[in-house]
Amino acid sequence: MSSLSRRQFIARTLATSSTAALYASRTLPGLAADTFSPPIVVFSKVYQTLKLDFVQAAAVTAEAGLDGVDCPVRPGGEILPDRAAEELPRYAQALCKQGLKVPLLTTAIASASSPFTESILRTAKKLGVQWYRLGFIDRERDVPVEQQCHEVKAQLEGLARLNQQIGLSAVFQNHSPAGRTYLGGDLSQLNEIVKDFNPAQVGVAFDIGHALVVHGDDWRRHFEKLKSHIKVVYVKDVKRDGRWVPFGEGDIGSLGYFTLLRQMGYGAPISLHLEFDWTDQGRTKTREALVKALRDSARVLRQWLATA
Q1: From 33, 182, 199, 290, which residue has the greatest number of CB atoms within 10 Å?
Q2: pTM of this structure
Q3: What is the pLDDT of residues 176-226, one digit of tens each?
Q4: Residues whose CB is less than 8 angstroms from the CB of residue 231 and which lie 6 or more positions away in sequence, other chains included
Q5: Structural domains present in the chain
Q6: Torsion of CA 266, 269, 275, 280, to 10 degrees
């Protein structure tokens, strides 16, 4: 205070308060300042349906009122692994111009020796990415599950060391069977794989929809066991029988899940996934229909968060 006059101090305090209020009003429209409101990003695999380029994808994300994208950098993805060093910065720049970010990626990386792993991760780190999803690992039916979990843990050790060196966190998603059986879809398997890793290097992308499909109401017990390793969450709405539906038409909003997230102090992005038919009146997939589906889904998700 000795170097500032009283008038200067008051002016700076008011300016800081005004900036904070402006930020809150832009990021949380219509919500109280203390509302539970983690950033919401879209799993931009959905943009591949319309073959959106990076500028178009950023514009759709902004128009839908989202905070950024969870970008698939994998074979057949929005960005191919061998193009990540060149194209990921271009995508991030297009998003930045809209005030958006790319805080997480979805990859096919399963070990430090997976193709282009180091190039993808070092590029991602420079752009502010904090988390990346590991690639799917199929359950080998002729191998005991304990043995396969042990083998996967061993192959992740080198990746954990690389993550520590670079400063990123890998996350393992739980996924229900969808024509194939994924290791870790059963949350007991997932816990066995990640429990001995530092969650800053290898954590969990908890998908409540897939957890409900696989475990029913027992999902909560598994959630509690995994809680220390949960780094990001994926949200889509689903009926208990496994049907993916528009947000608000399934069972996710009635589980008390978002209250648990709030209680654990969750503040990372939520990756919003569109798994339902968002076509324009069931006929065609258009830009307008996509923006509407994203906007409507985000609105319901924010309601769930606000009442958590």
Answers
A1: 290
A2: 0.88
A3: 998 899 999 999 999 999 999 999 999 999 999 999 999 999 999 999 999
A4: 131, 169, 171, 199, 203, 204, 205, 268
A5: 33-306 (3.20.20.150)
A6: 130
